[in-house]
Batch of 3 targets.
Target 1
Amino acid sequence: MSALDYLPVTVIGGYLGAGKTTLVNYLLRNANGLRLAVLVNEFGELAIDRDLIEAEEEGLISISGGCVCCSFGGDLIAALRNLSQMQPRPQHILIESSGVAKPSAIFDSVALLDGFSADGVVVLSDAETVQENANDKYMGDTVLAQITQADILLLNKCDLVDPQDIAETANWLARQNPNARLVKTKHSVAAPEVVLESFLGRQKITEPHHHLDQMTSMNLIPTTSLDAMNLAKTLAEGEFGLVRAKGFVTDISGDKMLIQIVGRRWAIKAADPKLKDGLVCLGMKEQMRPSQLRALIA
């Protein structure tokens, strides 16, 4: 199976009220031709904006632009396989975990399935309440588990908190999960390519928001063969300000390889040798290190 034949799956987590559903609606509204499929445990848990819905059938909501939403109930694996057999097939699956669920359990299940690619875990945290919730004797363990399982942390509702408190909360989150990349958001609006790798290199925002200006992207075009595994590991573990990266390189073995980075998680897969070399890198403007990134492929 070619690397591009795998169906990418992203898990969105976060405690109740963090803004997961608002984020899902934003992604659906800005899909711009990307066929997204959204999976939720039960339909009642996801309130799709009514103006996005084209049709509703038992177990399936059809959304404008070719996107769909369905529930998986107690059988996530069957729901994923059913989606993979749809025509036309979705190009990316987004699983919204419940507010009290631990997203890594879902991610690990996806990673074991043939034909699917586990894209990563994105967790939203409420800037107003996350530390308070983490210290609560009833919900604290769940909140902390969600945070520590994230590849990307979205610190949401930053418009409701003083800048000094936001900085303190961001530092606290970094101590809880030093491996996650943190992005600050308002109203659950994050650049779609931050949340889903399928948007990298193709997404055009139809609803501009000034705070999306915190992100920047660049292309790396290798002109010679590289050690694909070493490059992927260096991009993920180095301090280059990367949130995501995706693209193709020619390995020193001569094989074409797909490199995927999300947070500090990395993966490589064999790819079609006809594909052109090139990586799209996405990161925070104030943290991105273009010259250091270019040096990796020099």
Target 2
Amino acid sequence: MKRKNLISITEFARLRGVTTETLRHYDRIGLLKPAYIDPKTGMRYYSLAFEDEKLGTIIELKQLDMSLGEINNFLHERSLNKSYVTLKKKQAELKAKIENMKLLYNVLDQRILKIEQAILHDYDFDRIYLKHINKRRIIISELGYTDEYDLNRAAIIIERKLDETAPILGGERFILVFPYENIIRDNIKNECRIGIVMGKDNNSIYENFRIESGLYVCTYRFGSPFDIKVSLQSIKEFCFKKKLRICGNLIAVLTVDMSVTDIPEENVYELQVPVIKQI
């Protein structure tokens, strides 16, 4: 075969902005065969009329995150109907990825805001306040833990059960639940259960705990969420003045935690205690 109107693999690679090894790989897997191979030198040559069009299509389809196998199938016996079906399927996949990336972006945006607040000490740690919190569905550990090592192991097991986009670096999804009985009796122990708040559209079979909606007395704190005795006393004094009665477990929502800092004193958490008004 004559090499008229053909260019060498080196020229073709330079023209298209790919490496010669990429073109050799495409040849080996049957994705893009050269127009001619010199039997003496083994040099590959390509046609600007045919191989260039196919390589351009490969490059475009790779931008759609199609695998080489998918691209090979797309290029084999092309037709309008076949191309339409393949591209519509890929469009649906990209739409789902875009929606997921939007969700991740919004979660990350909120995380950065919380970290900025912690850096600037923009939390009012002296303030105790009331707020209404909606019902939360939880995947929670079956046992209570007092050791942070065991608590972290339990968190990993729970997170693996979460069949949705995982929290980015905590994301105010991790909570610690301290028993109501210990709060009422002033018997504050470090024992607690750890859980992850599920998304509103998550219907995981692993859901095993619910925190009902209602009125909560809340306050932000720095440091370890296990050191809550002083904070709880302040909350109880607040409840006494406001004629409120504690009616459930104490919840510690991890706002800034070990996922973004190795310094325990930089951890930020919100204590939430459910209350009802006394008659």
Target 3
Amino acid sequence: MKKFSILTTIVTFLALILGNLVVATDSGDACGSTWPVCNGQIIPDITDYHVIIEYSHRLMVPLLVVLTGINAIGAIIKYRKHKPVFVLAILSIILLLFQSMVGGLNVLLGTPPGFTTFDVTFSQMLLVILVLLSYSLNNKPVELDRDRWSSVSQSYRAFLIGYSVYVLQVILGAFFKHSRASNVLLDIPAMEYLIKSESIANMIYSLHWVATFVIIVAAIWFVIYASRFRYHILLSWLYLLSIVMNAAVGFVIVITGNVVLASSLHMLISTVTMAIGASILGGYWFKMRKKAAV
């Protein structure tokens, strides 16, 4: 069951990457509003790369629905007495339903400005829940003595604060882009705007960078503790590296205005960071345990 859960998580990750490409290349309208087919056809014209990207993403949805459904039902049946598994399995189904509904509405409504933020939010949360569900199926916990458990718990609390801010930052960044506030800030013309005020665009952008500072500080703190007490060393460094890389790419977007290529990379790294952070939390919540007093 755990291997199937990991497979479901990987497919979800790939679906998110395709979704990121759809947004970054402005391919969301390439297949029209005849969802889930493309321009009213099961086999559309594939000479346009926008059509290929958008239709590939649409075809991933049924596969994701099937895998997530089987994964959740299987986990509930096999681990029905394990409350975290049950809760996470139910949440995965709920988030998938919301994400599918929002994605469909986004297409049918013609991708109105700002609406894709909901799509990004639910899809990222689904990835986090599926990663946590995979870890919750672990049945070989690592026991830590009292002193080490206290130190590890303290570092994870700091990490949880930073990771929570990161999740909010991703949602804020999605709103910044899809509300067209980024277009206002970078002086790039757009067909429709949700936010036209330059002052509001600058405020959102400033909040985004304040959040980045908090996230980096929390990540450095976690790396220091992880290296000192020798746990999650690789994941802690990957998490910090991905955050720094994402901040650098975001800076490049603002300086150069290279929105398509840099935005694709920005979204890719954001998704990777989200998965790494969820893995760190999953490892702490489901693979570590305080050693019982003798």
